[in-house]
Amino acid sequence: MDKIKSSAALAAMFLLSAVCTAVMVGPASADPPPAGCSSDYAVPNQLTITCEPGAGVGQHAYIRCRDIGGVLHTRIGTTVGANGGWSRAVCATGESGPV
Known about the structure:
- It is a single chain.
- The protein is of the alpha+beta class.
- It is built from one helix and five strands, in the order H-E-E-E-E-E.
- Strands 1-2-5 form a three-stranded antiparallel beta sheet, with no helix packed on it.
- The radius of gyration is 18 Å and the shape is elongated.
């Protein structure tokens, strides 16, 4: 019974530590968008860049996300073409970002 209590206490301390670390670190600022493009972080856990025609050619949105275990992942959107357009990077289910 003591082992179960110890394991539960250890798991609770780990979870509390992870939550506190995430709150203290918070989201980091991303690179500024290329000239002629804008960034949109309005939707949680995703980044969309929108570019005017001729701007941002070959660029793509990317976002750093943290999974529940604390591991960082980079999610990359599609490439912006010569006609402009948008690129969207989205954290996977269970991840949060940007970090």
